[in-house]
Model the fold of this input.
Amino acid sequence: MTDEDIKKIIFTELTTLAPEADPAALVPTANVRETLDIDSYDFLQFLIALDKKLGVEVPEKDYANFTTLDGMVRYLAERTP
Amino acid sequence: MGEFRMPSLGADMEAAVLSEWRVKPGDAVKRGDIIAELTADKGNIEVEVFEDGVVEKLVAEPGSKLPVGALLAVIRAAGQSAPPPAAPAAPPAPPPQPQPMPPSVAPSAPVPPPVAPPAPPPQPQPAPAEAHRVHASPLARKVAAELGIDLAIVAGTGPGGAIERADVERAAAQGAAQAPPAAPAPEPAPAPAQAAAVSGMRRALASAMARSNREIPHYYLQTRIDMCVALRWLKAANAARPIQQRLLPAVLLLKAVARALQETPDLNGYWHDDQLERRDAIHIGFTIASRQAGLITPAIHDVPGKSLDEIMAALHDLIPRTRAGRLRSSELSDGTITVTDLGDLGGDAFFGVIYPPQVALVGFGRITEQAWAHDGMLSVRPVLTATLAADHRATDGRTGGQFLGALNRLLQKPEAL
Done:
């Protein structure tokens, strides 16, 4: 799976949580949750959705990797075929 | 015969549009059945019926915008016989004699000695005929007359749905005085413009919060809580769970609040008719941000009796429905206290405004690493600032301090929650 494929899945799930937002406009190094106003409940739903789509279950100790878009893509790319 | 009226689903609701009926005349209904759907600033709300019976008549037309307290339907109570069809117009029933209201004081509160008032002479009521049929306390009638409020459009929250003074004052604050006196003409449903809905929600919230700030003498207490043990326990618990079953810190906070309220029950209830009305059940109104409709505080029912997993399941049920505008009327009206958790994106502390007629609100800020002195040593700990906003008419700082102390103690033993 390419980085672009992963990014597309991330954008789809973020748009589900924040329909008014445009994830494609995200600065890759910006704090995604702060930018899109995603609270802890929605963040958990986001991770559950990624687990369903990509088969990657993110442990809590790795949450720091999900601060930025770049970090998410990098983390998921290392764990998807 | 029960009159089913537009419910008051919170201090910030003035009116709603009847979207649809889920029942028709002749249908048998049970307490808790959803019989109608409303569209309010808070979204779509499924309205439950509060008594068993048979739908006698649907009065309100779908699409009508109606104020709180407007007659929606007539429900014949279970066991009552149906009235004869096409009954001829009967003279209006005489007004009922004022019934002494049962005292709505807390069980342990001092009960004033009974005073035998002189039997008031029957007086003609200046209110319109519709008001004669409503069940209201004498004080509520007096205040309604003073404020020019039509009791027919006031939703009662007292025993048996009786209208009490606080209900009248709430209606007055919500602008009920400007509402038509009876049988208000249905208005067409507003266009579902998102901007208008948001504006309406903000306006309703602003009105309720301004009234709360004006009328409730708030006092505030704050404490810092070391969350080291609680977060460590939560981390270990979540590490052993699949991601779908993970718990959020809010679950621990909600359970700890409920348990602390059991130790300080004067903070759980309503202020009605100049008295604290304690509630045995602890239904926590949990503040949820809805992207479309501002903040909403639906109730999680009977929190002390729920396990942490059950509270998390309640959040999984409630949060998506709140954001989708699919709440039930009981969820909007049953809260006995409010909890606002700013979570990890909010500020460090939250000083809230009480949601009337409740008497307390608990606020949690963001958990941050802070310097913490313990046993003469300084270290860095995850610290949560908890605040209590409470109604000084109902409690004082001693009770508030006991509550925050209990909250802190309970969060140091998360395994026991």
